[in-house]
Amino acid sequence: MRSMKNIIEALQWRYATKEFDTSKKLSSEQLHTLTEALRLSASSFGLQPWGFVVVSNPEVRAKLREAAWGQSQITDASELIVICVRKNVDSTLVDTWMQSIAKTRGIDIAELKGYSDMINGSINGRSSPEAAKEWASRQVYIALGTLLATASVEEIDTCPMEGFDNKKFDDILGLDALGLESRVLAAVGFRSATDKMASLPKTRFPKEDVVVEIK
Predict the structure, then answer these.
(1) At 180, which helix (H) or strand (E)?
(2) DSSP characters for 96-141?
(3) C-alpha R_g of the chain
(4) Mind listing the pLDDT tens digit for each residue in 94-116?
């Protein structure tokens, strides 16, 4: 296992895995680490407008593969994580979050009124509920990035995926009843020895093309 001191080395090692070794499975501890990384991810206002659905059931994943144009990662990875946005990003969610903060920190919820009003003002100030959900969807991608980085440090392979029919995924997984909508997938497991993509050099723009330093 790599130490956090070698995070750059770990990120150099990771790639979007195309072929997973179906014989290798994550341990319960490894899966716990990944789901905790998702749960602890940063989000605007700390609101966490998301949900994470871990799909292990082979029959369900076979149906999901059909809704993802036959991509093998859906069924061949050890686990499939469906990263979702909450359908309703509104004052009810904010109230629930304030209650959680008050309970965790042992404070009177009245002390959080200013913070609550600020978040509600930001959400309600958007043009529509759909605009608020779109804002929330951007938070989902922060969680995805946290997952990918954590997995690379743990030497767990990943493939982030947007190529799927969201509506069919939502129906298959019964996400409407959970108040969720699928946004992006992460297949997680271990690369196959036959995946040619694993041996290709990492390709990224050079630092001088993407990093601007203002001193």
Answers:
(1) strand 180-189
(2) HHHHHHHHHHT--GGGGHHHHHHHHHHHHTSSSHHHHHHHHHHHHH
(3) 19
(4) 999 999 999 999 999 999 999 99
